[in-house]
């Protein structure tokens, strides 16, 4: 038997026991985990420094190095995230619905853990602690398959996590790390029907595609975000520019950054010159004809120094740039904006900026996406921002879980039926 | 383009419009459908009689002929089912949760339709109407792929349904029938990523396996039921025999029939001779050594005429007989019963018959199944019995939907976030 398969079995065994633990027991174990990460901080940072050093020598790009790196603040954030998970209500054992049948049978729908989850993720080591804390609180065992670049960080973190769970009276075996570094591990996980109940890929497009295409077990697709902001004439243009800037620049490489700006024809003259000034030298604009004309007309002789203005090509509407690039298009109505979004969007996060309550209502009802915003930055689509303490990722599918995934995504239900001898006639 | 692919597109278009209909509009369309089935009753029965005649000539077995056959009572049941669906609350547009973030952003989780569903089912034509009424009420379009044996019945029913929906002011295009009779249809459905949001196989084991193994779109697995009843000493043996008889004999070919009886050692002497008398000439018992000994000792010279008693072989514990056969095994404790069930069961429906509240509690918490019963027949695992009016099938998976599937199984959520200019810092 492959060592990973015996790990599947031990996770299943631990999960069966974990499913029976009450909130006090689970929270005590999570407090143990929190303390252990704090106590082993130096060791974790040393292991991470070794990973970072190795990655640098292999020529990893700066943005990825940053994603891989831990420091004192990031360890503090990890610990704070666990504390929020501890404060969350227990998602297990809730009666979601209940009723009595005409024959007297009493039927209840009760939340139970989903089972054994696997997460396959790229370099961020904070995902390791986030995923464990959410899974443990939801009564699920978790198999972690991080990237080889973060192997030492993850090994050290998982050692601390398991020791901490045990010190808190919990079940260290509910956490497993797939650390052979071999690609076969992923194939074994994706084929583990009946042994792993769900797999969550978290990372770049290629990873997610590979998992979705090959999994024989349920997958929750995450991450791809071709997101839009649509601006109406009554939006208040200063605030609109702030929101667009935040959605593009606060972290351009993330799935909830804005990629295409849709502007109502009657908002273009006011909004676009302001935006051009704000983005000059910072963000390349890929404009359709009318939006380009609005910028040129609005700026006139005062063309902002450093502004890069290109003609949009059709592929721009369907591209998740993850970069300092924004596509811009003029539309004639909220309906046209909705149609564009439902055609090109990835059902992630979409926003309308408007003063018109009817337009907001239409937009929110008709845009098909996990998160639909009125008058706010789409960068809030995040488990931490939503108050979940951590997140397992952002589901872009409709099946089972949608949007930022916290505890609820790792639960399912069981019907409990209580009778007094009823038979079916 | 294959005609089925243009059907996919027209279903998607209709679903986009159906998603925006309110309860009044949807219920009016369903009333139209109900009236049309009633009005076209003779035509439907004639088409069904032709299907039945053809099936008989091809040598279809009686049980399957029965499943294929419609009559006035069954049409009445179909109509009554639609009436119950009409009376159900609208599952769409419910605020499932909502909260305000520290920055003032208001976050709501709102139920929305899952999208376009496909159902691939064997001969029962009543599934046609059940699936349409649930899907329509949930704002979903539905693609029906029935068996070739029921082709004329389904064509006539779907004609009535579409005319009825239209007459009620609804969207006939939200319903599609794949009726070329070709097996390629199934492959096209299973490959329709992004065009069909979920596929529900409903029928025999082979159909379900084929769908699960080949689908590139989300599947809800249904149906397989290796179900158990466990009897404790204080259960009240007369009532226990009634429940076991009901669970085995009320409809032996269904997934919620009992297949293995587990008897506590101290209940065997009282229960098993009673059961042997009740099942003599009707159900074959496949016993382990101790249960066989209890029957022989209890019946003594009065061995019930016609009783078939065989030795159980290991495969019997994992077999869904769907027949007049019951496996019987003695256990020493509720824990041993739970262990047996969690090892051999298919996570469908499981019951404990007991007078001991602690045993019931342990059983309900630790048995991993969609439906766990105390002191009642497991035959109640059914959307109609649960009060849903109809069912899309009984999910034996944990992902997205579990147990009898009514309206809720065809919904998902959308986050609606309302702000006043918030940006992420």
Description:
2 copies of one chain form a homodimer. With 425 residues, chain A is an alpha/beta fold. Chain A has 2 domains: 232 residues, Aldehyde Dehydrogenase, Chain A, domain 1 (3-Layer(aba) Sandwich); 154 residues, Aldehyde Dehydrogenase, Chain A, domain 2 (3-Layer(aba) Sandwich). Helix content of chain A is 41%, strand content 20%. Chain A has a 7-stranded parallel sheet, sandwiched between helices. A 4-stranded parallel sheet of chain A has the order 5-4-3-6, with helices on both faces. Chain A has a 3-stranded antiparallel sheet with strand order 1-2-16, with no helix packed on it. In chain A, strand 1 and strand 2 form a beta hairpin. The longest helix of chain A has 17 residues. The mean pLDDT of chain A is 95. Strand 16 of chain A pairs parallel with strand 13 of chain B.
Short description:
2 copies of one chain form a homodimer. By secondary structure, chain A is of the alpha/beta class.
Q: What is the percentage of strand-forming residues of chain A?
A: 15-25%
CATH third-level topology of the largest domain in chain A: Aldehyde Dehydrogenase, Chain A, domain 1
Characterize the quaternary organization of these chains. homodimer
Q: How large, in whole angstroms, is the Cα Rg of chain A?
A: 24 Å
Q: Please state the average pLDDT score of chain A.
A: 95
CATH class of the largest domain in chain A: Alpha Beta
Strand order of the largest sheet of chain A: 10-9-11-8-7-12-13
How far do the termini of chain A sit from each other? 50 Å
